[in-house]
Amino acid sequence: xxxxxxxxxxxxxxxxxxxxxxxxxxxxxxxxxxxxxxxxxxxxxxxxxxxxxxxxxxxxxxxxxxxxxxxxxxxxxxx
Length: 79
Known about the structure:
Layout: E1 5-11, H1 17-24, E2 28-35, H2 43-46, H3 63-76
Parallel strand pairs: 1-2
């Protein structure tokens, strides 16, 4: 019987909750570090935080975007 294998792209740190779950279920996971997560230095200058006061929701597309967003808020006292 062939063991199932899956390739998961990760950040350079190699962290992946999905990979951990798959491995725990017996699937062989090949982690492929393919990208680097970083905060853009001038992102604070480019983001209009006042839009948050006009919005009912903020939708994030990844854990990394949440971390970056709160990093900006905490370092710039923006909100």
